[in-house]
Specification:
The chain is of the alpha+beta class and about 725 residues long. The chain folds into three domains: about 240 residues, HUPs (Rossmann fold, 3-Layer(aba) Sandwich), CATH 3.40.50; about 160 residues, Isoleucyl-tRNA Synthetase, Domain 1, CATH 1.10.730.10; about 150 residues, OB fold (Dihydrolipoamide Acetyltransferase, E2P) (Beta Barrel), CATH 2.40.50.140. About 40% of the residues lie in helices and about 20% in strands. Helix 10 links the parallel strand 15 and strand 16.
Length: about 725
């Protein structure tokens, strides 16, 4: 092993969005590997700071908040605590875990980008941006979806395709639609925005990327691929309300694009950690910065953020960008809606310590390719690798020491064979340290397990139970190996490491003398205990059931607070209009309710022609008890307003068929409703809108309109 040289190391994990509950893929995709490496760096002796936080701005938070009917700040406040509690439970050793909504981040971002502006790397350009005609909203980033022009993925977002990781221009999406209302009525409008001049930065970026030979090949190749395609100026502003206001004259109505402010969160979080020491990690040229990220974030950490740093001129570029691939689940993707995956909110309540999950999760770290979570593999990894190998060696050694020598370490008589064995231990420790130094974390754990297997073999071959005199040396060697293993396992299993050191009755806080025989004859250990219990099939099934579900916190809260509206109202499109065969004043309407087609009988003949009704989007009561009207069944009833002189339909032209209609603050009832009970509902017209108990009747997009009837008209 090369001679140790103490370094300053700043380690960051990708900032998670606070719009949902994290699943295991989020943990293994950045947080856990960053924590393992940070713990290793501290133990080996480097001056180490591990920084993280939540990414709270942008459309991801706005859309989720819109869905739940709350403000983005309320959403982020709520989910920040959930994220923080989960990461704490996983024993992620962040020195500071901040938020991009904090004042220190706002100020840091503005100061950083003012310098970029002063240095001449920010341009002004007019761009075409998508605008949804249905919900009257400019569609930034995740507000627009469509088919990726590069890989054909059907649900690519306006900012990036999560399938092929290409950063996208929303204008190039095929068949774009609004992510909020799903309308395809998208128009493009022109507006001035600010851009980072990546084209000007391209030569310096290429030279820097090419010099980083220690990066993983897939990270380096992806970054150089961007350079080869040709870098273009990249928009850094957005028409949103939730974000950091742009401090430049003429652009005060815009906020900074979330990809710009999020990575600056690493700097502001370090500032929050220490008001002065932060500079020694971000501005001391000898310090090394390590970013742990998922593969969708590779362009932002190898091109865009480094470009910003070059344009600013006052901060260190990263030493290593550890771009990880994706974790999948049982042959497919994680899916909250399908209850597919391991979601972290319930892990703390299911009886297994975090180290069980940390151990198997190391095997899932997608260092060079996508990996798969399998429940059977989880069970086998715990039972056959962690318990039967590692924990078995610790248990058999300390139990023997406790039962045969009353827990007091005997005086050894080392033979050449024992010394050779310890040389093999030293060599194996070098391999473990080498793997960790190269951030080959799965390999590092494998080498630790190889070391405990070496210990099991030594114990078994020397048969200490046959000769207690010889056993003194064997147990002395094995107890010291238990100490080495207890220290080596700490980056991976910190709670287990602590238990081993407690049983050994010793406090060692670093790896300074990890290859030495640190326990001396006469040392008294504590009472040994089992480190883990085996996972049985029944327990696995229980875990699978409980961890695959995610609480829809705000939707559940909303349901609890929402009043029930007796009618089940939906938008429906009239597909055809025909005369009733048995009644001169009635029409037969075929309607599309989105999920099904139905037939209605309507008494509209003296008010509307067939042409006036055809293709209209109307409002239908779908839970009305079916009735036969002049021999023809009618499944539901359309709604119209009557002021005594004129009849008008309830119009919902901007909404899709099947859109729910209800008064604000109410949820529709789905129980069958009698006609006489529907008539009792007091629905009246006011200001061309339908009112129920002072609440406006509306879909998620628009108020239902009535044109041509007077206020006070009744809806029937």
């Amino acid at each position: 092993m090369a001679k140790f040289k103490k370094e300053k190391r700043l380690i960051t994990a990708a900032l998670p969005y606070t719009n949902n509950v994290p699943h295991l893929g989020n943990i293994v995709g950045s947080h856990l590997p960053a924590d393992i490496f940070a713990r290793y760096c501290r133990l080996i002796g480097h001056e180490t700071v591990f920084i993280g936080g939540t990414d709270e701005h942008g459309t991801a938070s706005e859309i989720a908040a819109y869905k739940y009917g709350i403000t983005p700040k309320e959403l982020c406040d709520f989910f920040y605590k959930i994220h923080k509690d989960i990461y704490d439970w996983f024993n992620l050793s962040y020195d500071n875990f901040s938020r991009t909504s904090k004042p220190i981040h706002y100020q840091t971002t503005k100061d950083f980008l003012k310098k970029v502006f002063q240095n001449g790397y920010i341009l002004e350009k007019i761009i075409r941006l998508p605008f949804c005609q249905s919900c009257q909203r400019q569609l930034s980033d995740r507000y627009i979806e469509g088919i990726c022009p590069y890989c054909g993925y059907e649900k690519a977002r306006g900012d990036q395709c999560e399938n092929c990781s290409k950063v996208l221009d929303p204008a190039k999406l095929k068949t774009p639609s609004c992510a909020v209302c799903h309308s395809k009525d998208i128009h493009f409008v022109e507006k001035k925005h600010l851009f980072l001049n990546l084209e000007k930065l391209s030569p310096a970026l290429e030279k820097w990327i090419d010099s980083n030979k220690h990066w993983r090949s897939q990270v380096r190749s992806l970054a150089l691929g961007w350079i080869e395609e040709g870098l273009k100026p990249r928009c850094i502003t957005r028409n949103l309300k939730w974000g950091i206001p742009v401090p430049f004259k003429g652009y005060e109505d815009l906020v900074f694009y979330v990809w710009v402010d999020a990575p600056i969160g690493y700097i502001s979080s370090t500032k929050e950690w220490h008001a002065t020491k932060w500079k020694s990690f971000w501005q001391n040229k000898d310090a090394k910065i390590y970013h742990f990220i998922g593969k969708d974030n590779i362009p932002f950490h190898t091109i865009f953020f480094p470009g910003m740093i070059m344009a600013n001129g006052k901060f260190n570029l990263p030493y290593n960008v550890i771009g990880l691939q994706y974790l999948n689940y049982e042959g497919g993707k994680f899916s909250k809606s399908q209850n597919r995956g391991v979601f972290c909110e319930n892990l703390a309540n299911e009886g297994l310590e975090a180290d069980y999950w940390r151990f198997y999760s190391v095997y899932l770290i997608p260092e060079t390719k996508d990996t798969e979570f399998y429940w059977k593999e989880f069970q086998e990894a715990i039972n056959n690798k962690l318990i039967a190998n590692f924990a078995n060696f610790i248990n058999r050694t300390l139990s023997f020491l406790d039962s045969k020598f009353a827990g007091e370490l005997p005086k050894p008589k080392l033979t050449a064979k024992d010394k050779d064995f310890w040389k093999a231990v030293e060599k194996q420790i070098d391999l473990i340290i080498s793997s960790l130094e190269k951030v080959e974390l799965r390999q590092g754990l494998g080498e630790i397990l190889a070391l405990s297997a070496l210990g099991n073999k030594y114990f078994q071959e020397n048969e200490p139970w046959k000769d207690l005199e010889r056993a003194k040396t064997i147990i002395y060697i094995c107890a010291n190996l238990c100490l080495s293993l207890g220290l080596l396992i700490q980056p991976y299993l910190p709670t287990t490491s602590q238990k081993i050191l407690q049983m050994l009755n010793i406090e060692i806080k670093d790896w300074k003398n990890i290859k030495k025989l640190n326990l001396k004859a006469g040392h008294q250990i504590s009472k040994p205990e089992l480190l883990f219990h085996k996972l049985e099939d029944e327990q696995i099934e229980e875990l699978k059931a409980k961890t695959s579900k995610v609480t829809e916190y705000f939707l559940e809260k909303k349901k609890a607070e929402t009043k029930l509206f007796p009618a089940d109202l939906y938008v429906a499109k009239i597909l055809s209009v025909a005369d009733h065969p048995n009644a001169d004043s009635l029409y037969l309407l075929q309607i599309d309710l989105g999920t099904e087609k139905r037939q209605l009988v309507a008494g509209l003949k003296k008010y509307f022609s067939k042409e006036q009704l055809l293709h209209k989007k109307i409002v239908v009561c779908a839970n009305l008890k079916p009735a036969k009207i002049r021999g023809i069944e009618s499944k539901g009833m359309l709604l119209a307003a009557d002021d005594g002189q004129k009849v008008a339909l309830l119009e919902a032209e901007k909404s899709e068929s099947g859109a729910a209609v209800s008064p604000e603050g109410y949820t529709n009832d789905t129980k069958e409703l009698a006609f006489e009970d529907f008539i009792k509902l007091d629905l009246t017209v006011a200001g061309q809108k339908v009112i129920y108990n002072n609440y406006i009747l509306k879909t998620n997009l628009e108020s239902i309109k009535i044109i041509g009837v007077k206020d006070g008209a009744k809806v029937r």
